[in-house]
Design goal:
The structure is a single chain. With 630 residues, the chain is of the alpha/beta class. The chain folds into three domains: 220 residues, Serine Threonine Protein Phosphatase 5, Tetratricopeptide repeat, CATH 1.25.40; 107 residues, Response regulator (Rossmann fold, 3-Layer(aba) Sandwich); 242 residues, Response regulator (Rossmann fold). The protein contains 30 helices and 15 strands. The N terminus is likely disordered.
């Protein structure tokens, strides 16, 4: 019997094992296959826009961010619009930036801080200092990204400088310093030094100790540099002590080298001083007040700083002859001459063997660069400095469109040009001016002409002739100016200021040079000059800054002369005290000397300039105002 084999079937794997096996097989096959890398993703549109902003392509960045804003909503859209506004501002397109910033509404604190900073930057470009200060006051630096902090601190510094707050300007620059590169740090540190040097030493002493140790070090250095500026030995020791107390201080890299140069400049000692003054003739009264101021300063000087003083009358022998005689007599240095023509003759000599401090200034008599030895310094009560600072004061107070009254003649033209030049530099405009004759009894006509009153009266007269009737109306003054600058001595000023009021300009602030102020004026004069703002020397209007001891001595010794010749006494005091400090002022553009005639500094040509104190006359007495930063 044959046997038939039964059919056989392959073993079928259970489903529960089949699926995992297939997955494992797929993974093994994938591992054996060559890897295929996806193409790298390009930079996003936001990254491209940010790169444009960082590289300085501000117009392109603004377009990109605005496009991103159109494709976004909510907080993201606001952020892109702020980026676009920032780019527009940095490109100088203030109009478009302003429109965009005005449209942004956000309640997010970080974005609000960013928007406020951009609005402050815009206000700065539009010369709106009050708005800048208001916006900055509401910004918390911690809410800003780090890349915007330099903008914030720069803006704070400039705003405080413009408002005369040197301490807070210095504080902002101290914070800015760590965010800058080496070249920018150099300029920033010089600005810190400049801001603090605007204060007198007494005020600075009262600001210490500051909670910021870096700023406190700056303040301490500023105080000791001026306090010890008369002695090379004392200054050298004071600088060494300061360095040990403030290791690694930023001033060590920038300011200490300048101060060490000053130490070398102070090593010149004056044993015999020749004073060249016109002690007889038409300038004798002025010369005698200067002489007496120098003598009083000599008595108040430390014993080791009292040179032998010899006086030479330039009226009888001329300045050049007196200078040569002083050199032959063994003088180490010279103060004088006083008359401008004598200074010109002296400056015209081929060689000046003695260090000389002239008491007047002449054009074209520069002494050379700061890296060259100083032989001739020029110091005087020149009106051009006062006129330029009057423009600065008006700008500081928010005024840019000025009307000007100056006396006829060369003096008035010099004042006018100095005022106009500085006002235009600050972005202002001299709207109109008139020159008056100070000898005239009636000074109404130039005032009426300046204010446009005479034109209104001419129009009325013409209209009356045309219609044949008498018209009754009050002439209106011109409306295109916001302040008046007046250069006038006491008597004409007492006529001009009431004329301004009478002709409807009582709402225009009046800024003036010191020449109208007379200490001890009577009540009638005080009424005439009420409210005028003027710059003058600390000796006359700033009891905090003047030398109280010398002021009392001179007032007691010569009561009447102290009032009528106070400025000349102060000039003599400063001339004596300046001499040993001329080297310090010459080698450093930021060096200052606290004088009785003002805060003094020297330009590269050896001319000494005065920074004045500012006051408003109230009932005949000067009331000090905040001092502008210059």
């Amino acid at each position: 019997m044959s046997l038939t084999s039964a059919p056989t079937f392959p073993h079928i794997m259970p489903r529960r094992l089949l699926i995992p096996l297939l997955i494992l097989l797929a993974l093994l096959l994938a591992a054996c296959a060559p890897a295929v890398k996806p193409p790298p993703a390009g930079p996003s549109a936001e990254e491209l826009a940010a790169r444009r902003l960082e590289s300085g392509d501000f117009a392109g960045a603004a377009r990109d961010f605005l496009e991103l804003a159109r494709g976004s909503s909510g907080e993201a859209a606001t952020r892109y619009r702020l980026f676009a506004a920032e780019a527009l501002l940095r490109s100088g397109d203030t109009g478009a930036a302003g429109v965009l910033l005005d449209e942004i509404r956000t309640k997010v604190p970080v974005l609000q801080a960013w928007q406020a900073l951009l609005q402050a930057m815009l206000a700065q470009q539009r010369q709106q200092p009050g708005k800048v200060a208001t916006l900055l006051a509401g910004i918390d630096p911690q809410l800003l990204p780090s890349r915007l902090l330099p903008d914030l601190y720069r803006l704070q510094a400039r705003s405080f400088e413009a408002s005369g707050n040197g301490l807070e300007a210095a504080r902002a620059r101290v914070r800015l310093d760590a965010l800058l590169g080496p070249e920018e740090q150099q300029a920033n540190r010089l600005a810190v030094w400049e801001a603090l040097n605007r204060y007198n030493s007494q005020v600075l002493e009262g600001l210490r100790p500051d909670p910021d140790p870096v700023l406190d070090g700056w303040i301490e250095l500023s105080v000791l540099a001026r306090r010890e500026s008369g002695s090379a030995l004392r200054l050298r020791q004071a600088l060494a002590d300061w360095s040990s107390r403030h290791p690694g201080h930023p001033a060590a890299e920038t300011i200490l080298p300048q101060l060490e140069q000053m130490v070398q400049a102070l090593d010149i000692q004056v044993a015999q001083l020749a004073v060249l003054l016109p002690l007889s003739g038409r300038l004798a009264t002025a010369a005698q007040a200067i002489r007496d101021g120098m003598v009083m300063a000599w008595f108040e000087a430390p014993e080791g700083e009292r040179p032998v003083m010899r006086f030479y009358d330039t009226t009888t022998r001329g300045a050049v002859d007196a200078y040569q005689q002083a050199a032959a007599d063994g003088a180490d240095a010279v103060v004088g001459p006083l008359a401008k023509e004598e200074v010109e003759r002296l400056a015209g000599l081929e060689q000046l063997p003695l260090l000389t401090l002239a008491l007047n200034q002449v054009p074209g008599a520069a002494s050379g660069r700061r890296d060259q030895p100083l032989r001739l310094a020029q110091f005087g009560l020149v009106p051009e400095d006062e006129a330029a600072q009057a423009a600065e004061r008006a700008w500081f107070d928010g005024h840019l469109r000025g009307l000007v009254l100056v006396p006829e003649g060369e003096w008035g033209q010099r004042v006018l040009q100095a005022f106009r030049g500085r006002l235009v530099e600050l972005g202002g405009e001299l709207v109109d001016f008139r020159a008056y004759d100070p000898e005239q009894r009636d000074l109404g006509p130039p005032v009426k002409a300046l204010l446009g009153i005479d034109e209104a009266e001419h129009r009325r007269a013409a209209l009356q002739r045309l219609i044949g009737e008498r018209l009754h109306f009050e002439p209106r003054r011109r409306q295109d100016a916001d302040f008046v600058f007046l250069a006038a001595r006491h008597i004409p000023a007492r006529q001009l200021i009431p004329q301004l009021r009478f002709h409807h300009a009582e709402d225009l602030p009046v800024y003036a040079t010191s020449h109208l102020f007379r200490p001890g004026m009577d009540s009638e004069a005080a009424r005439d000059l009420e409210g005028v703002i003027f710059g003058d020397m600390p000796w006359l209007i700033d009891p905090r800054s003047r030398d109280r001891t010398l002021y009392a001595l001179i007032s007691n010794a010569w009561p009447r002369r102290a009032l009528s010749q106070g400025r000349l006494f102060a000039l003599g005091i400063d001339a004596f005290r300046l001499l040993p400090r001329l080297g310090r002022l010459h080698v450093s553009a930021t060096a200052r000397f606290e004088g009785q005639t003002g805060m003094l500094y020297m330009d590269e040509g050896g001319r000494i300039h005065r920074l004045l104190s500012w006051a408003r006359l109230e009932e005949g007495e000067p009331v000090l105002l905040d001092q502008p930063q210059r």
